[in-house]
Write a structure and sequence with these properties.
31% of the residues lie in helices and 19% in strands. The protein is α/β, with parallel strands linked by helices and 237 residues long. The chain is globular, with a radius of gyration of 18 Å. Bound molecules: ligand BV8.
Length: 237
């Protein structure tokens, strides 16, 4: 199996032990705020200030350093460095904990908290600090057209052609910290079942909606089960 490429899908569960809330757990985000209000274009059009405030609070938290990468993020960065083949993290997460941990081959299919996008010139740019309806686009200078570079429900995820190209040539697919509720990410494992040659492994706190589709499943806190799995994988290379 050595020298073959690996694709790793991550979700909010990998960042939970870093202090970032998941979405659908009992103490999750969607229990406190309405998806329609803050994670849809319609909600943004209805009340942009509310949506900016929602993401500004999350951006402040990751910029504060109070939510550092945990051993699961660090283990994936180690795998990228030591595995004799390509390792790509395809994350649903909008935080930058994979980057902070040292991973460099990362695709943020749902966008990034630390980027903004201009609805006028379509420029995408790094953004730190709060964003608001009075923010100016650093590319075209317009005020009021800057939005979070985040994929809301009903919007097209980023890098899909690249993601499917990587899935179609990988020999190992890991799914870490995701409940398998959101498509198209939740459909990746089903896409791979027809491929035969791919080993698929779910590493999560509890079975996801797609658990039965995986060849192997390992349950427990990511900061414990992911480093252990990566150690075994590297020992077997
Ligand atoms: C699209 C950005 C078309 C905002 C997000 C097919 C069927 C049904 C519906 C659809 C479908 N196709 C499309 C849809 C509609 C929709 C969808 O999937 N709806 C669902 C809810 C039914 N999808 C879309 O609209 C997508 N767009 O499909 O366009 C298209 C498709 C393909 C190609 C071209 C075009 C856009 C979806 C993106 C929406 N934006 N986020 C923000 O982040 O604020 S989604 C949001 O959910 C986050 O990105 C989050 O990451 C993602 C998934 O959630 P999870 O990460 O899994 O988090 P969750 O809380 O659910 O689970 C956490 C897990 O961790 C749990 O299992 C828990 O047990 C575990 N855990 C907890 N603690 C730990 C742990 N694990 C390990 N250790 C721990 N310590």
């Amino acid at each position: 199996m050595s020298g073959r490429s690996i694709v790793i899908l991550t979700g909010a569960g990998i960042s939970k032990e870093s202090g970032l809330d998941t979405f659908r757990d009992a103490d999750g985000v969607w229990g406190r705020v309405s998806v329609e209000d803050v994670a849809t274009l319609e909600g943004y059009r209805r009340d942009p200030a509310k949506v900016h405030a929602f993401y500004n609070a999350q951006r402040r938290l990751i910029e504060s350093g109070d939510a550092p990468p945990n051993p699961a993020h660090l283990a994936l960065a180690r795998l990228e460095k030591e595995w004799p083949g390509d390792v790509t993290v395809v994350t649903q997460n909008i935080d930058d904990l994979h980057e902070q941990a040292g991973s460099s081959h990362i695709l943020h299919m749902h966008g990034e908290l630390r980027k903004g996008r201009c609805e006028a010139c379509e420029g995408v740019f790094v953004w730190s600090g709060d964003m608001g309806t009075d923010s100016r686009c650093p590319a075209c200078g317009r005020v009021g057209s800057v939005r979070p570079h985040i994929v809301w429900f009903g919007e097209v995820p980023l890098d899909m052609p690249k993601i499917f190209e990587l899935l179609d040539r990988c020999s190992l697919f890991l799914s870490i910290g995701t409940s398998g509720n959101v498509y198209p990410a939740a459909g990746f494992v089903a896409h791979l079942r027809g491929k035969g040659v791919v080993r698929t492994v779910e590493l999560n706190l509890e079975p996801s909606r797609g658990a039965t589709l995986f060849h192997e499943t390992i349950y427990g806190p990511a900061s414990q089960i992911v480093p252990a799995f990566i150690d075994d994988l590297l020992a077997s290379r």
